[in-house]
Write the structure tokens for this entry.
Amino acid sequence: MEDGRDEEARERLVAMGEIAAEIAHELRNVLQVITANAYLARQDPAGSAAVIGKIERNARLAQSIVDDLLSLARGEASHAEPVLLAEIVVAARAEVAPGAAEWKDEVAPFDLKVRAHLGLACRLLHALYDNAILASAPRPPTITTRAWLEDGAVFVTVGDDGPGIPADIAPRIFDALVTGRTGGTGLGLALARRIATAHGGEIALVPGAGGACFRIRLPGAR
């Protein structure tokens, strides 16, 4: 019994470490944007309204990152609610720079719903979108999102036409700190798996027409 508790404690510490590392990674990107725009605002205080708007949007984004990932640490994915999948897809792309990717979507039915924590589900899809964009840089990839209902579960695939996952790391691609990209953190896909699992679902790397393709299973909702 004591060994079981020790293992559970170790698992919780590992999870907290991964979540803390991902918060730090995500906040670093947002803070760089805030810092750059604060510099621009100082150069032209009179004409800085648009720049200040960017600072405010990124400050809200930073807060949402912290809130979402702390929700994961607290186990709040278990308190999921019915959410339109289309809403999750749109929100997951809100942080993606215009022109960074070409999007193709096939969602049937159009009002498909999943039982999920909205913020965390957005983080899950955003991790896959961000991974595809960074792996394909500097060329904007075509990212295809397909979703359907099957036996009460919602299946979502996210595929791209990038370089794909190197064969030598494919079996470990969801492990923390494993990455096939120079400068990559190896945290995004580890976080995606943790979010899917927290919802009672799963995520897997599956064969695709080209590039990388991931399949997610989440509980369906009416």
